[in-house]
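User: Hey, my collaborator sent me this sequence without any context and asked if I could get a structure. I don't really work with proteins. Can you help?
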Amino acid sequence: MYTIKNFQDNPNVKVTEELGAFQVVEYQRDLSVDHMTAQAAYYAAEMNVRRRQLVCDVNESNITIQAGAMQWMAGDVKATTGIKGVGDFIGKTFRGKVTGESAIKPEYTGSGTLVLEPTYKHILLIDVADWNQSIIIEDGMFLACESELKQKAVMRSNLSSAALGGEGLFNLGITGNGIVALESDVPREELIEIDLQDDELKIDGNMAVAWSGSLNFTVERSGKTLMGSAASGEGLVNVYRGTGKVLMAPIR
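Assistant: No problem. I've predicted the 3D structure and written it out in structure-token form, which is a compact way to encode the shape of the chain:
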């Protein structure tokens, strides 16, 4: 039996979002300052630059996190590699290599509370079921997920999507029913969600932070001809086709 005091009940700490086994807590002001840094900390808080942490309820679900993200845990919580045999190890190693994510993501089981390292980025909680049970995310955004979700390396639909788009050939795909937590440079209030119904979306640059696994992603000329692309001044654009959703940042 354990009791946690002066954390979620701290007047300087606000629970900004709860979903599934996760809570996002946000420190309203940085109080660990001195007379040299107090002014910068004050204006940072005024501009919504705040420390945030992900709190995980291991009683509700086993939790898989990005390697090195754990800060502390209370209760009968055990860390495992989450590897289920040689084939699983090979698959996870390959996925880590091609997506740029950590090859082995620890899985926490048992009963208790798991708290991740603080970050100044924004933490997004997404129910994968709302994305027709399949979501693809930009590299480096994965923070944690309920372990019922499956992770896989998703290859771009063609080589040009990586070579021309200036990105890797693979992204991290997450499938199943459960909640995933992402680290985002952009707050949820500024993210644009576009719902496609057998249609297409063209974006100049890698502004999409997540998209449905049902969408076909390619990189193409903005115009039908080289002359048309030159006239538009855009050149190449990222194209998402089909039925599904795209979560897009207004800036990168």
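In plain terms: Residues 22 and 56 are 5 Å apart (CA to CA). You can pass these tokens on to your collaborator as they are.
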